[in-house]
Amino acid sequence: MGFFKNFCMKDDGVTSIEYALLAALIFLVILSSVTILGQKVQTHYEDINSAIP
Fold it and tell me: Taking Cα atoms as reference points, which of 26, 29, 48 lies closest to residue 37?
């Protein structure tokens, strides 16, 4: 019973899970930003390419 109580009282695993979730969220935000920015840059270059005879 002491092992289970000791296991439930520790919060080391919770902290690492929180950091992993935070890192995943930051990764998704960066990935989304790069995707959106890449699409806008591609559209801009296509407009420039079509303007050049």
Answer: 29
Cβ-based neighbours of 14, under 8 Å, separated by 6 or more: none
HSE, side-chain direction, 13 A CA sphere, residue 35: 6
Structural domain boundaries enclosing 51: 26-53
Mean pLDDT of 14-20: 85
CA neighbours within 13 Å on the CB side: how many for 22? 6
**Which of the 8 DSSP states describes residue 10?**
-
What's the count of helices (H) and strands (E) in the chain, helices before strands? 2, 0
- The reported pTM is 0.61
Q: Is residue 16 part of a domain?
A: no
